[in-house]
Amino acid sequence: MCLGIPMQIKSIDGYVANCEAKGVQREVSLFMMQDEDFRVDEFVVVHVGYAIQKITPAEARTAWDMYDLMLAGEPGEAGTHA
Questions:
Q1: Which pLDDT does position 55 carry in this prediction?
Q2: CA distance 82 to 79
């Protein structure tokens, strides 16, 4: 399973953006979406260090709400669902 993480762009330098999610900052490559116009404070989905999609702030919140619910699952539940 692949997981894309919603992150907010904090700064941009060429094809590299400094992005933040839940207090964690990462450098993210914008190269795969070089035809897009990126702005500080926009949200992107990040997979293995690359921005793969622009999303709205509401979509980012919804994704994080879902991830938080998954992480809050009961201990021992992981791996019990196929």
A1: 97
A2: 7
How many angstroms separate the first and last alpha carbons of the chain? Answer: 12
List of domains in the chain: 5-71 (2.30.30.140)
Q: Please state the pTM of the whole predicted model.
A: 0.83
How does pLDDT run across 10-58, given as a tens digit for each residue?
999 999 999 999 999 999 999 999 999 999 999 999 999 999 999 999 9
Helix (H, G, I), strand (E, B) or coil at 60: helix
Nearest to 5 by CA among 36, 45, 65: 45
Q: Give 3-state DSSP helix, strand, coil % of the chain, rounded to 5.
A: 20, 40, 40
Give the other-Cβ count within 10 Å of 65's Cβ: 10
Separation of alpha carbons 47 and 29, rounded Å:
10
